[in-house]
Amino acid sequence: DDVVAFAFKDVFSFQPSPLVPQAASTAQEDPKISRIAQYIQSAENIIVMVGAGMSTAAGIPDFRTPGTGLYSNLAKYELPNPEAIFTIDYFRVRPEPFHLLAREMWPGNFKPTDAHAFL
Fold it and tell me: How far is CA 87 from CA 38, 92, 94, in A?
């Protein structure tokens, strides 16, 4: 079977998308997107691998960037370590930090990019 690989950054803007209906007509005019659409329509299975850059362009922080990454900004929760906020054992003992972070990261606080809309 054929394996097709392409880089999202070569096809989609990682800038916030207006997510308006006109995007469909733009997709039909772009030969790269038309080719991708043909592959998707004929595919039995599709695997998409993306990195943090897809979401950081929408304003969602990555985990490890010093100063701006999520782990750098968890001190206010007084955790034993940054990863604790995502463990079930810590959540069972102290769920408040996770709930506060989830509220901060809640959908609607960030605008999806074109790549998010595509997926």
Answer: 41, 9, 10
Distance CA 75, CA 30 (A): 45
**Tokens coding 54:** 């897809």
The DSSP-derived string for 63-96 is: SS-TTTSTGGG-GGG--SSGGGGG-HHHHHH--H
- Distance from CA of residue 48 to its chain's centroid? 12
Please measure the distance between the N-terminal and C-terminal CA atoms of the chain and give it in whole angstroms.
Answer: 23
Q: What is the pLDDT of residues 82-104, one digit of tens each?
A: 999 999 999 999 999 999 999 88
Kindly state the tokens that stand for 114.
């074109």
Cα 110 → chain centroid? 10
Reduce the DSSP state of residue 36 to 3 states and report it. helix
